[in-house]
Ubiquitin carboxyl-terminal hydrolase 47
Amino acid sequence: MEMVPSEENQLVPKEIENAAEEPRVLCIIQDTTNAKTVNERLTLNLPASTSVNKLFEDVAQKAGYVSGTFDLAWGNTVDMAVLDHSSEMPLSDSGFESGKKNFLQLTDKDGEQPQLASDESGTADSSGLDDSSQDRFIGPLPRDGMVGCSSDYSSLNYSYASILNKSETGYVGLVNQAMTCYLNSLLQTLFMTPEFRNALYNWEFEEGEEDPITSIPYQLQRLFVLLQTSKKRAIETTDVTRSFGWDSSEAWQQHDVQELCRVMFDALEQKWKQTEQADLINQLYQGKLKDYVRCLECGNESWRIDTYLDIPLVIRPYGASQAFGSVEEALQAFIQPETLDGPNQYFCERCKKKCDARKGLRFLHFPYLLTLQLKRFDFDYTTMHRIKLNDRMTFPEELDMSPFIDVEDEKSPQTESCTDSGAENEGSCHSDQMSNDFSTDDGVDEGICLDNANSAERVLKPKSSLIFELFSVMVHSGSAAGGHYYACIKSFSDGLWYSFNDQHVSKITQEDIRKTYGGSSGNRGYYTSAFASSTNAYMLIYRLKDPTRNAKYLDVESFPDHIKRLVQREKEAEEHEKRQREIERNTCKIKLLCMHPVKMMMMENKLEVHKDKTLKEAVEIAYKLMDLEGVLPLDCCRLVKYDEFHEYLERSYEGEEDTPMGLLLGGVKSSYMFDLLLETRRPDQVFQTYKPGEVMVKVHVVGLKSETISPPVSVRAYLNQTVAEFKQLIAQASGLSVETMRVVLERCYNDLRLLYVPNKTLKAEGFFRSNKVFVESSDSLDHQMSFTDSLLWKLLDRHGNTIRLFVSLPEQSPGSLASRTCSQKEQQLQASSNSDSQNASDAEHVDSLSLEASSAFSISTADNRELEKRIRAGGGGGSGGASDPENQFPSEERSDSDVNNDRSTSSVDSDILSSSHSSDTLCNADSGPIPLANGLISHSITSSRRSKAHEAKKETWDTAEEDSGTDSEYDESGKSKGEAHYMYFRAEPYSREDGSGDGHSKCLLVYVDKRITLAAFKQKLEPFVGVLSSQFKVFRVYANNQEFESVRLNETLSSFSDDNKITIRLGRALKKGEYRVKVYQLLVNDPEPCKFLLDAVFAKGMTVRQSKEELLPLLREQCKLTLSIDRFRLRKKTWKNPGTVFLDYHVYEEDINISSNWEVFLEILNEPEKMKSMSQLAVLTRRWSPARMKLEPFQEVVLESCSVDELKEKLSQLSGIAVENLEFAKGRGTFPCDISVLEVHQDLDWNPKVSTLNVWPLYISDDGAVVFYRDKTEEPMELSEEERNELMKKESSRLLKTGQRVSYSPRKEKALKIYLDGGPSKDPGQD
């Protein structure tokens, strides 16, 4: 055969090389059956010449099913045609397209779910699969947030796709709830232990005695039954953990698997009291050993008997650099005695003196199931952290325990004991004080016989019988901080090893087991060669080899009757779940909307309807879902296809009432690209037909004379219609004349386009699914002007840029207006004259708004009635008599400079000037208007859309706050910048309906062009506030009523949108270069050291002394503090920490960085300022008196340098402590660095070995650092336990009040507990 090089430079047959050139078919197959827990998605890329029956074979192999037990159907067609399993036709001739995605669905065949490939060879317990036919896998699966396994721990033929398939082994996995891999490993080990499984099956649950939900043995029994009989890939463990009394938070706590084993066994023993299984755990897992001390002079031995459930084996002895190489070495070290000599001599009761002695452990007998814990977790006293020992430790498949038992010692035990001789064992050995007479014990019994043999039949087994075979290795991958557990278990049915890794079960080999020894490896994969692998064995479980005792797994036919009944119940529950999943899989779920005919608001719900239900039945379901029963008849409702985003009615379904919903919606999908609208009509109306391909247009009629824009009327058109045809359609709907009609399309928010080419199609003009147009038809000369110069454009431009704001005004004191200066009057008169001259040019179309000019000096601020009169007199006159202020535009003041093409994107999508409720009618040319059911009140929908847009925009407001500086309200010539541009502005009184705020506060509803600058906006508000714009501040109200001041005067209101709230507060507004500063008083010895005083204004270029001079009168007036300028200082404030002391000659922005909303500390001095230079350092010191258990008040020490010696000298002078006896430590945390008096003496880093303060570990280089100091010769006060507890309570209360962390009572790791009463009792005082 001729060979050619492939792309990977490997030689392949030429036929294969040529085959790669032919077209390929990409098949994406979705498994929709219930054969597996997770319905996977398969991808096959096959040559186009592949036959259909070969496709079935490939799918079967990849999915793990038996070929011929499933069907393949087209997934992108409504009828879901099934492929012929026996067809020999190539894919290219069977409807498959090369180069495209071909979607198929894998479905049940003749109502039966597919047969798993492993089912052909029976159950897992009798599987005869060989190594070559299995995908092998060992090690943790890579998962988010943790290190995956290295390549050392995956077999060469491992593939991720094979792991996602149901295991071919026939075993069932366990779902990891979150961090319950340790639990899954133990449960699978117990399940694979025949003696434990069979004993659990023999126990019968009595329903009347206990709640099955809280019964641990019953839930374990159910779990084991499902593991043996279920056809699922993996099952949940939530019922088991619920019986433990755990809540969902326990799933996020990872625990030690050995600890879980001990706790679970204790719980089972408690639950099994007074049953046949009462002693099961001890029979299977309990061994005995002797803890002895033998005098080396007289030979007397004192001892006690201990029981154990597992043997903890040290990996690396304490202080040693070399680890034990094998389990045998560790076992030998476990029983190796130590000599007690020198100061550790043992007091012998027989010798009546201290003597050299030998202390150690001896195994008396071993359990039937021997558990070895490899102590890989240790504590590093150098780093003071927990560590994991990844050293290599081998373990044999068969372990001979005869060398570790001393039969001679057991034949003649000493009968003398000493109560103080026993040493507490490490790890998990239980210490049960036994009788001194060892002859009363059951004798030496290595491995408990499970039959009812009497004690006479229990004889000492020879050493050759103590052979244990390994059958479970629980592996930990990770570090001491966390990781992943899984189990490698040998089946006693076939002698093969399997990896149980949560829901993944796969076959492995002896070589994979050897990789769990730990230590270094040649090919490390993910891990670097500098470290040993973190994946290694942690617990080993052996079983005694004894053919007379070794049990086999019970098969289904041999189950006890109560287990057979349980199997039947679980099978029925699984079938019911399958049926429910089948119904769920065939249920169409789609968003349902309805404009409620009474509430007049858009209602939203989810419509869930089976795919075989007809449209008529779906309408009935939607009718009840929207609570329309009793509101209107069912025949006044119908379902139509709807696009909520574009507010577009796509089509109606006339004549398709009996069509199944699955066909109508295009199949059952997880999500749809459209919604359904339940459209309603009045009994006297008829439904309008919506044809596919039509576009919906909302038509607003504009009245130039009245300056109004009407609510929308919906019409439907086609994209291939011309503009001329579209005008005819509008004429029918609105009654306007086509000859003088102008149509303006708003393509996006406020992007206006005049449609003036008659033969141009709507598609070419930019029409889409849903559109908005403005039409005007009048005899005025305005249509002769260019569009951008016309009054129509100005009206629409104003309409698109006008926003509505709610403004809360401050209360005014009488006479506030009288204090306004003459220059202000002159400015307003000048503004009035400018606006009059401007209005003269547009007098034909626009009336002037004379509010500012005519009434600025006559406003009375006594109450809202006068304000309302002023608004009516000044601004209400141009309303044209219309009663609804939203239906018309009053006159405005503006200049031609404002007429520009600045069309910034606005969130205003609806008409702020249109009526909320008006019926739509479509005129018929032949007859009178026919009432039609529109299905939508367009304005209401648009309003809801606008509110959604505002909600989305509010999310950005909270993160885009002004952060630096401000701009001057006046330009360089002194002229107000607000006068340069006049934008639309109208205000009217507003009464709060929500009852919020002060009942006496005044509110305005303001319509304003959002292109107006903040400076101009403030000037427009002057008549209503009653003071100059420079004397009040504008605060923008965000979510949760948070207020932030708007200070950038040259910025527009473009970031504002409809219904934003603004609060006006009196106070001097900032000018350019000015910053608002919050001043806090620093009280170093008060319980609350940070107290807010006032708001002040600092300016760029101002010295610190000048700012102090301005603060003096404010402190007197607002804070009642009378100070002299040399008896207080300003200093930096960083949260609660005092920082750099500002010297009088420092200049803001030059020496001191300043920003908007800056904060500063004011500190009152008891003596003149000592800080004169930046080279000095001010340190806050506090003395610790251990003899009195007291911390003294703070005292400031000013240093000339960062020298430690100078600090000690100053502290010595301050306290009288000799320099050589003085020790100091830096405080921790934020000021005041409070700490409990119970831990200050030991926990602080006293007397650091440094000569300067500005180096590690102190880093004291700025003012405000806290330093504790003490006399090292002073001994701490001796406290009784009662005094210590009392002091601890006081300190805890004190530190909690100051907000400091109480660290002397640290929170420990959450202990693993199993609650026998169904759950933990809640401690009301528990955190």
